[in-house]
Amino acid sequence: MNSAKLDHAPPPAVAAPETRAAPRGRARRLWARGTAPYAFLSPTMILIFVLMIIPIAMVVSYSFKDNVIVQQNSVFVGFANYTKVLTDPDFLAALKNTFVFITVSTVAHLILGLGFALMLNTPLLGNVTKAIFRIIYILPWLFTVAVIAVIWRLMLDPSGVVNYLLTTLGGSSVDWLSDPGKALWALTFINIWAGFPFFMISILAGLQGIPGDLYEAASVDGASPIRQFWNVTIPQLRPVLISMAVLDLIWTSQQFALIWMTTGGGPLNVTEMLSTYTYKQAFSSYEFATASAAAVIVLLLTMVLAVFYVRLQKER
Question: Where exactly are the transmembrane stretches of this chain (predicted)?
Answer without folding.
Answer: 38-64, 99-120, 132-155, 183-207, 288-310
